[in-house]
Amino acid sequence: MVIGSEVFSGAWGLKFDEKKIYTILRYAYDKGIREIDTAPIYGKNNHDVEKKIGNVIKKANLKYKINTKFSINKLLIKNKVELEKNLKSQLENSLKSLKKDSIDNYFFHSGTDDEFMIDDAWNFLNQKKKDGLIKNLCISLRHDLVKKNSLKQLDYLEKYGINKISTVCNLYSKESLKKVVPICKKKNIFIYGRMALAKGLLTGKYKSLNAFDRYDPRYKDLKLTKKIIDFSKKIKNLSAKKSVMWSLKHCDKVILGFKNIEQIKSLND
Ligand SMILES: NC(=O)c1ccc[n+]([C@@H]2O[C@H](COP(=O)([O-])OP(=O)(O)OC[C@H]3O[C@@H](n4cnc5c(N)ncnc54)[C@H](OP(=O)(O)O)[C@@H]3O)[C@@H](O)[C@H]2O)c1
Predict the structure, then answer these.
(1) CATH number of the domain within which 142 lies
(2) Is the pTM of this model over 0.90?
(3) Which of 25, 67, 88, 189 is 20 to 30 A from 97 (CA-CA)?
């Protein structure tokens, strides 16, 4: 299991200070969980959540592996020098925020094919890998591309030295099973499944839309939320554990968001 940290950003309407984050990370660590998924864009300001995680794990000496991400904004980058400068600054800011000497898994953050297929970017990142600043290069696949079966990025795994991917994989959104999972298995690419619980909607606990206030991401698209709840009601004995076990049948690891330690506990029992 990998601890997803988007919820620490406050984007779900809940405040997570370092004390609260410590409680979750300490508990998970003691239960044998050793990996955290984060991103510079989580938080009000860039690197906010990375900084909180960095402070907590450093203070408590928790030896978590860290997955974080980078983006390529083609509009802001006009030439190779600017591209490298931008990537260098993203990497250095993540390392500094996380208080780490290297990033274990560095993910291209759900970008388009145009943003992805830039040889100079991957040459630069592979050099940083050689320098020991990055251990693995990875792609967090953009789900609208997976839905369209537009999987060009997977053709570049070898060329760009990428050995891990993350993809949406849950009982409701099974698109990754068509091609992504078989291709990655064939190429021996490590698969992280994300959103195994469809943001909590595949846990069996939600029966109506009343539970979600306007700060909750599940409130943003109530039509979809209702569809997933209706779907979930048809699954016999649905629980968070059942959904996670389903995703783990297809993926090597799952990335999960937790709001409290009871949610981790219920999966470990
Ligand atoms: N592009 C990308 O790379 C990308 C995109 C999205 C997410 N991610 C990563 O994936 C992580 C997970 O995504 P997510 O948090 O949006 O979705 P998720 O893991 O599918 O759902 C998390 C939510 O499910 C509920 N939950 C968790 N454990 C539970 C349990 N044992 N029993 C009942 N309910 C439980 C909690 O919400 P309630 O208690 O409120 O129901 C929790 O906030 C993110 O934090 C992020 O690190 C990456």
Answers:
(1) 3.20.20.100
(2) yes
(3) 189
